[in-house]
Amino acid sequence: MTSTTPDRTTLFAFILVILLGGANSVAIRFSNLELAPFWGACIRFVVAGGIYWLLFWGNKMKLPNRKVTAILFINGFLTLGGSFALLYWALTTAPISLATVVISMAPLFTLLLAILHRLEKFRWQTMLGGVIAVFGIGLAVNAQPTVEGLLPAIVALIAGALISAEGNVIFKMFSADSDPIVLNAVTMSAGALFLGLASLIAGEVWSLPTQPQVWTALVYLILGGSLAMFYMFVYVIKRWTASAASYAILFFPLVATVLAAWLANETVTPLFLAGGGIVIAGVWVGAFWST
User: What is the per-residue pLDDT across 15-40, written as a single tens digit (0 to 9) for each?
Assistant: First the structure.
């Protein structure tokens, strides 16, 4: 049941989405060290989707009606497949912290799309929170190393955020009667198909990792960044508003930057920390503040 105020279980799942999702960009960067971007993403969702199908059959679940199943498959093919293709490709060049800051635009896109779909009503505090968050994102971007030559990656990240936001709204519209296991089995398989086709068209080499850190990143992306994180996100979006659930993405830069500084030797500056604090303030206003 959708609510504008989350219960404790939903809030706990929301926090897990933040932690797991924030680590994804770092793991993708390590995956890209050895695996071609579309191929690496395809492996991730083939395995994760396969595990979800095993859970589906093991629990003797049923698919939704044909119309809903078809919509979920198309949604997974276009939005999950498309957004992750753009994300993986962008992270071959863009710094991790910059990438997650740009991706943080997704909640604003989700809000606008949810209103256009008449799924949510316009709320001034949500828009105010978004404006505050955008200001914080701007500061965080200015704290990054030069973005010269990174325009294609930034455009890809913005496009991916927009595509992902539309996917979230479609999830919200058609997930009310479906278990997260069913939803993820269908959409991840569809996304894997998109990514496999993209890899073939791009002429990527299909190989398995040889480096331990790449294997570690891939295993994390399958188990933590896909199975656990996607399950929790679907759980949250079924019980909270689409725009509020998507605000978890605004926390990703904070988690990713700490991990990037620790594992990938990226620089954390006071300006970025200030921008991150403002982003958190925007999240509180937009997703938690009740009037």
Answer: 999 999 999 999 999 999 999 999 99
CA distance 225 to 236: 16
- Measure CA 98 to chain center: 15
pTM assigned to the model: 0.84
Residue 238 domain-assigned (yes or no): yes
Please name the amino acid found at residue 108: L
- Residue identified by tokens 């294997």 is 215
Identify whether the C-beta of residue 6 lies closer than 8 Å to the C-beta of residue 183. Answer: no
Q: What is the pLDDT of residues 89-146, one digit of tens each?
A: 999 988 888 788 788 777 777 777 877 877 777 777 777 877 887 788 778 767 766 6
Residue 3 gets which letter from DSSP? B
Query: How many residues are recorded in the chain?
Result: 291
The answer to whether position 16 is within a domain reads yes
Domain with 143, as residue range(s), is 8-288
Is 98 in contact with 158 (CB distance < 8 Å)? no
Amino acid at 204: E
In the chain, how many domains are there? 1
Query: Has residue 26 been placed in a domain?
Result: yes
CA–CA gap between residue 157 and residue 95 (Å, rounded)? 12
